[in-house]
């Protein structure tokens, strides 16, 4: 297993300041850290909501990639978000997991946490598992 989820970052993940933390194969759970740049600020001084979705999309997608041995990335059919607290412009932790997946559909979920362990946002996604672009089929 090449574990590209540990080292390879998309341009958007680099922009978000992503950093691999761990992968728990038993739980199908990937943990990442993100350091949002100042440009992600809303007028309130916290991370803008659409960009919060990006953190969660990235960590849930990475979880599917890890669970499928670097073979599948999600193509989202939907993503539902709950914003529980404002997301500060400081390092945050994200956990994404695969609830269930097959050849045709994957169910994913994720959370964002502040430095004190408070849940900031939650997401769930239904996605199509698709081959990694540029990988051998």
TrEMBL record:
Where in the numbering of this chain does the Thioesterase domain appear?
Answer: 45-120
Q: Which domain of life is it from?
A: Bacteria
For this UniProt record, give its keywords in alphabetical order, as a comma-separated list. Answer: Hydrolase
Which GO molecular function terms does the record list?
Answer: fatty acyl-CoA hydrolase activity
* UniProt similarity note: Belongs to the thioesterase PaaI family.
Q: Which PANTHER family match?
A: ACYL-COENZYME A THIOESTERASE 13, THIOESTERASE SUPERFAMILY MEMBER-RELATED
Please give the name of this protein: Hotdog fold thioesterase
Write the lineage as a comma-separated list: Bacteria, Pseudomonadati, Pseudomonadota, Alphaproteobacteria, Sphingomonadales
